[in-house]
Specification:
Two copies of one chain form a homodimer. By secondary structure, chain A is mainly α. Chain A has helices at about 1-5, 10-20, 25-30, 35-45, 50-55, 60-65, 75-85, 85-95, 100-105, 110-120, 120-130, 140, 155-165, 190-195, 205, 220-230, 250-270, 280-305, 310-315, 315-320, 320-345, 355-385, 385-415, 425-450, 450-455; strands at about 150, 175-180, 185-190, 215, 235-240, 245-250. The first copy, chain A, folds into three domains: about 1-135, MgtE N-terminal domain-like (MgtE N-terminal fold); about 150-250, CBS-domain; about 280-455, SLC41 divalent cation transporters, integral membrane domain (Tetracycline Repressor, domain 2). The longest helix of chain A is centred in the C-terminal third of the chain and has 31 residues, at about 355-385. Chain A is elongated.
């Protein structure tokens, strides 16, 4: 991705040139002048030789700041640590925000991880070790431990003094969380509150309580919803005893929202659009598994049609409408599926119950099925001047749409219940399943009226 | 949506009860104690009688704060203003953040709008009038004019004094934008910078420049990308002469990201999942247009198959494989389409050129087509013990996949070029188009080998 931006940016090309020609001082000046996001883009373009040189030209603190902005996958970034001397790597890790460092260290080999943790200051090492335990995609895995905490008994001027001191290390200083001696979360004040009230005001007088927070094992999708609904810049994370254990920042939440949306989207298409590489060979490897699996599933429909070959050979007109019926029912199923998957991304409280969804989709299926069925009945009746054929196609299509619509709403509910992510290739699955049921419905209905079609 | 949360919350039920029984004082105390997001959820549950009562119990300032958190569609919210006396409505609008007020007023009737603007303080009225001119889905339409600006020649203590004064009105005080006398944007400082440097430091010494900003006519998707890439809490908006005209906050950007993602997603399924109501009758009305349009498009495939009915009546085995070929090619086309649409959401610089995309998709289509074609050739060859039939199906499928894959990448590019949103029902379109080409390819190839299939 970064590749394209660099091609458009002479400045970035020149900086790489400075590194290549070993102009250490000039390189430092121009590189460090950039936003860390741009520094990280340049870094992604370097080969191993240039990266090693960069580690020599920059301090571990400077590299650590830049690593906070790296967008490559953590399993890639962890390899960079292996290129550095261990003490340098430890300093880079030390400088990074804890949540980012932990994301990457989760992919380190055990041996390396031990080395880094030993080289880190004891407190940092313990912090990282504790965060490494949290399950992926929970609040605990998203949170950082660099926040500002104050006491309710402080006054504003003393709180501001505390914030000033913690400002260099804290990832976010715009909210200060109010805790008891036991670290129980009891309130929150914003920097705005602190700046707009008299200096001698007590925190207890101005703090907001109760605080909106999330438990440490909360699902990341729920975290994203809370931040979005309440328009927070950060959200505190508490443990089972209401103790403050970390905060989650809005920028990490944006990544979660993107990730969750991409998952749904990829599932509808049967391809992981986020990870699809540009190289055609590797892109094919990503797409082929689903294509081939769906091909095998599609064979079940083929076998079923094969079963009715005798019927077709007697009335070949029947073959003409198979695609129309399977295609239209598939479209109806996909619509229903998309609505159901989106519904699953609503918060627990906002969701409709499963039964309510199914009954509502059944009614929707009935209505859309009848309208669409009547339409095709008229079309075919007029086209072939055969109203019995039209009626058979119409009734088959209506029934197939009703079944596909209900299936489209049930399948993600069931997958969600048994713990499978409904976003995995569910779009092509529903089409394939709906093909099967549509063919079954169609040929069974058609069979009853066979005499009317022979040589229709 | 709020309905379900309220059922789970006795507290919220009690507050509505207090309003119903005209307990003004108790109602005020408990209602105002809630977060505005929760206040807005309760408000959404009230009927017109209770809403009128609420306007009497609360000041316009309190209602204005709550209106900033309302999540209903602006065309709905604007109706609430009509329920209030004009001077009260104007005060509510005055209290709201300008960007939110403008979003809603964009749906007001001209007569009402004139009344509100006349009742507002002159400065506010001018601000709102100017923002109403910006095109929907641009930076101008997203931005707010309540920001903090300072001069480079100020020192930190004077800047903090300015921020304190503006804090009550500004939507975001964590960044202060540095401007010239002409309001040209030349730098930015964060509150963190101000708190961690000595009070006598000049702003010019610590400000970050140049500032990352967006032009006022920038597309909202590009704005969202910048905020996400740079992890900003807000992004300044400038006009053609580099003058600061507003800022965009991260919470508004989150809504944009959701909106853009939902658009892509809805397009893949041919249904607007965001606006699909729960009522089956209205849901059907939303889904039917695409179903029926696609049904008519599907009729073209049907007519084409009808054209080959003679072929089918001679070799009914051919009908057995139509669904498999159209279905699999459709899956391949949808994969390619999803990747292409996601690619369009990358920023201008990150995008691959159109030709590069097409050549890359052609290669991917070739590879996936050949592998899938070989697979089905073997399957059918073994199943029917007819390797010529297997080869015809294999070659047809491979060709159909190649065509569908390339079409899937070209169609969104073309739609984007001619200014049509590729997210509109593009998923079902590609399936339908690919059905047509697949059938054409299949029957033409099959026709050449007809003698081998008769009574196969």
């Amino acid at each position: 991705m970064a590749e394209k931006q660099l091609q458009n940016s002479d400045k970035m090309q020149r900086i790489i040139q400075l590194l290549s020609t070993q102009k250490a001082k000039l390189f430092r000046r121009e590189y460090l002048d950039l936003h860390v996001h741009e520094q990280a883009q340049i870094f992604a373009e370097l080969d191993q030789t240039l990266r090693s040189r960069l580690y020599r030209y920059l301090t571990a603190v400077e590299v650590g700041d830049m690593f906070d902005a790296i967008e490559e996958e953590p399993e890639e970034v962890v390899k960079y640590f292996q290129e550095m001397p261990i003490s340098y790597a430890a300093k880079v890790i030390d400088e990074m925000y804890t949540d980012n460092a932990v994301d990457i260290l989760a992919y380190a080999q055990n041996k390396d991880l031990t080395h880094y943790l030993l080289a880190l200051p004891e407190e940092r090492s313990a912090e990282i070790r504790s965060l490494l335990h949290y399950e992926d995609k929970t609040a605990g895995a998203l949170m950082t431990t660099e926040y500002v905490d104050i006491f309710a008994s402080q006054d504003i001027s003393s709180a501001i003094k505390d914030i000033r001191e913690e400002a260099a290390d804290a990832e976010l200083i715009y909210y200060a969380y109010v805790v008891t001696d036991d670290n129980e979360l009891i309130g929150v004040v914003t920097l705005r509150d602190l700046l707009t009230n008299p200096e001698e005001t007590l925190i207890s007088e101005i703090m907001t309580d109760p605080v909106i927070s999330v438990p440490v094992d909360e699902d990341q999708a729920e975290v994203a919803r809370k931040v979005r609904d309440y328009n927070f810049v950060a959200l505190p994370v508490i443990d089972y005893a209401n103790k403050l254990v970390g905060i989650i920042n809005v920028d990490d939440v944006i990544d979660v929202i993107d990730e969750e949306n991409a998952g749904e989207y990829s599932g509808l298409a049967g391809v992981d659009t986020e990870e699809t590489p540009e190289d055609p060979f590797r892109a094919s490897l990503k797409r082929l598994p689903w294509l081939v699996i769906l091909l095998f599933l599609g064979m079940s429909t083929t076998t079923l049609i094969d079963h009715y070959e005798g019927l077709i050979s007697q009335a070949s007109i029947l073959a003409v409408f198979v695609s129309l019926i399977t295609g239209t029912a598939g479209n109806a199923g996909t619509q229903s599926l998309a609505v159901a998957i989106r519904g699953l991304s609503d918060s627990e409280e906002e969701r409709r119950s499963g039964w309510k969804t199914i009954i509502s989709e059944l009614s929707t299926g009935l209505l859309t099925g009848i309208v669409t069925g009547l339409t095709i009945c008229v079309l075919v009746g007029l086209w072939k001047n055969n109203w019995i054929l039209g009626s058979v196609i119409g009734v088959s299509l209506a029934t197939a749409i009703i079944v596909a619509t209900v299936a489209g709403s049930i399948i993600p509910l069931v997958m969600d219940k048994i713990g499978v992510d409904p976003a995995v290739a569910s779009g092509p699955f529903i089409s394939t399943l709906s093909d099967l049921t549509s063919v079954l419905i169609y040929f069974n209905i058609a069979h009853q009226f066979l005499n009317f079609f022979i040589n229709a």
